[in-house]
Amino acid sequence: MRALLPRWLAPLLRRRYTNRLFGRHAWLDHSLAHPPEARPSAAGPLVPLLMRAAQATPEQVLAQLQATAGGLSEAEAAERLRRVGPNEVAHDQPPTAGQRLWRAYNNPFNLLLTLLAAVSWLTDDSKATVVIGSMVVLSTVIRFVQEARSSRAAEALKALVSNTATVWRVPAGGAAPQSQERPIRELVPGDHLQLSAGDMIPADCRVLSARDLFVAQAAMTGESMPVEKFVSAHDPHAPPNPQPTEAAPGQGPLEQHNLLFMGTNVVSGSATAVVLATGNQSYFGTVAAHMNAGEGTVTAFQSGVNSVSWLLIRFALVMVPIVLLVNGFTKGHWGEAFLFAMSVAVGLTPEMLPMIVTTTLAKGAVMLSRKQVIVKRLDAIQNFGAMNVLCTDKTGTLTQDRIVLERHTDVFGQASDEVLKFAYLNSHYQTGLKNLLDRAVLEHVEMATELRLAQDYRKVDEIPFDFVRRRMSVVVAEQDHHHELICKGALEEMLAICTRVRTQGPEGESEQPLDGEVLARVHEVAAQLNREGLRVVAVAMKELPLDQTVFGVADESALTLIGYVAFLDPPKESTAPALQALADSGVAVKVLTGDNELVTARVCAQVGLPAQTVVRGPELDALDDTALAACVEQHQLFAKLTPLHKERIVRALRRNGHVVGFMGDGINDAPALRAADIGISVDSAVDIAKEAADIILLEKSLMVLQEGVLEGRRTFCNLLKYLRMTASSNFGNVFSVLVASAFLPFLPMLPLQLLVQNLLYDFSQTAIPFDRVDDELVQKPLRWNPEGIGRFMVYFGPLSSVFDIATFALMWWVFGANSEARQTLFQSGWFVVGLLTQTLIVHLLRSPRLPFVQSRPAPLLLGMTAGVAALGVFLVQGPWAGYFRLQALPPAYFGWLLLILLGYGLLTTAVKRWYAGRFGWQ
Prior knowledge:
This protein is of the alpha/beta class. 48% of the residues lie in helices and 16% in strands. Strands 1, 2, 3, 4, 5, 6, 7 and 8 form an eight-stranded mixed sheet that branches. The protein has an eight-stranded mixed sheet with strand order 9-24-23-22-10-19-21-20, with helices on both faces. Strands 11, 12, 13, 14, 15, 16, 17 and 18 form an eight-stranded mixed sheet that branches. The radius of gyration is 34 Å and the shape is elongated.
């Protein structure tokens, strides 16, 4: 299906995506119901609802929600979805058509044009009013249409990577409840959810059952550490409460230990929960709706656009008064001088900038989708192109993500079926996040029959995995003779809780203490497996009495080490070429992994990364920020990392001035994804990773990422083209106007003519987002550089003024347009030269190469500029000339025109080559 994306994306882009509000929750006719009209903008009235759910028993909550212990039926869920609406919050609702139209109009440039149109109307200059009004309408309508397309494209692309939740539903006919994956937006109150590590909490929920459930709710409370959740509203480890059914004084919903909130995520453990509130009815939704009116955070991209916009505006604020004063004093007609100065202000205004930005980003997002890259936030395209350091995990990125169980051995490296048996029991009965290692173990399906799971084993308890312990345990009853705690995890962490080892000898199994000699041999066996590129997971166990029914981390002690399961995940064939391509594109790759250093070094050496030195997580703990800043620059491989280690490395690289991308797909990657300039995840990632990412890859491959980086740079490069052309052309025009105004007895061009010329020029640039980009322009990261744009403007702007002044001399002395009576001929001659040089500059400055020969423009841009040039000449030579107070030019003029255009092209090309050699083109 993904291969067909470009073919079926077009219909998606034409769909209308609308999100309904969620103010219809009054159908709950028991104590949990509350009328939506009574709910103010903040989350206050939701508090009683949540508190009642926290204080009630699970049975009471289900009764209040009119739900059964097995979940809702499909018919009930469909009816509730119809009444309540999708599980989406208000801030995700796209603006209405009226709001989008106002946003398309509301920018400094359009407001300035509107002011000028009003002044022209008040001074009875109807022609100028029409022209300026047309510019406002054209700019607004084009931006409105492009933003509508962009919005639909963004929603369609988001739909490709929408998150799902595991829901228990009762099939028709009263059959047993079944778990199924459903889109989060389809959840309704009363749904039963199955939650495990890595899941986003999709709605406000009440816990029905939990096992070592730890939830990160920093987004709601600011707490940096995960919070444990239970079935009770109170922490069972806390001192007894004399009134256990009531909340503690001063505590609110966020302090209740049996409530889960939309926007948080499961760190470890597992649970079942029932949905209380969805969408705007949730705690997060009501707060988001309350805060929605506030302005959003300005991104780096928006800041860059704003900096360039204000550069041009400041330039206009300085030059326009000068033009007014020069014309007022030299001509003596202050009213006419004022209108002319206002027209110059319009010419200096990049009124097409918002539309060009929107069109460029929207087109870039669609083009990236064809490269299997989905952009969740359009502004992220700029950071994608600017990225110069990529931090990535090893598994699935450098390797094939096709882990197979290669060996199962005892502690001394001899093949052992017993180790496979215990590993299988552990993977089979654990309910947390089943990773690729678990799946590789469970592929040995014959073990289920050999072990007689249904007859001989019964799960008793589970101690879920977390990234501090780096292990997980299950407790099973074997034929109800005894309990067995079976633990598997990283070798170092497992050795810390083991006191004995089990070995196979001629006389059968035996156990011996884990003393120094045995420990050294264990390390050597594991190291040898690592050097072969195998990832080693240790397996241990101990027997426990039948009368013990509750187990915790404290029980993971005094275990007997049984052996190891070793996994192989070979490198992808495409990894080495992709790494080389990224290096050629100016992107340094750093590997950040939780795996051990030997396996990491082996895999990285196979794909061409220098693997002599691998920095381990514990070594980073000993470094302060200054030492860490030097360390992350000197090394490429980092192993045995925790999630906080990854985040700290990313932040250190950013402080060093890099634009950092982080690619990850696990729950342990979420902090680093948020810390990076651009978070990159994959479609198969856990919910929290996809939620934190800015870019989603539909294929977990560095080659796909490389293609996406180049496409992002092409998008940004086209935007820079417009800014350079606009800045340099505007500067040159104003300089020419000042020279002409100082020496001519009449205006060099009437305000109406200047406005028409500017409108035509702006229209020719609307095709820039669809232009081709030279390969060498995307070989290095692109970053915002307002100073460089200002320098570009100063160097290239005056070049057109040289030929403008030559045109003044031509019209004055050769064609005799040297009096007020013949000013129309003068103005017509400069109108054509000005329009054609401005149009030609589009091709001269779009690339550092020789235009039309070494670098060909896109057909659309070529056709647009040629059409505008032809229309400009037609306005002068055709029947409409009188309306614009122009007149037809003599045939001899066009011979001179060709010489002027040729000279302008040659001079600009020469200066362009010198400029690129000295300053670089970017």
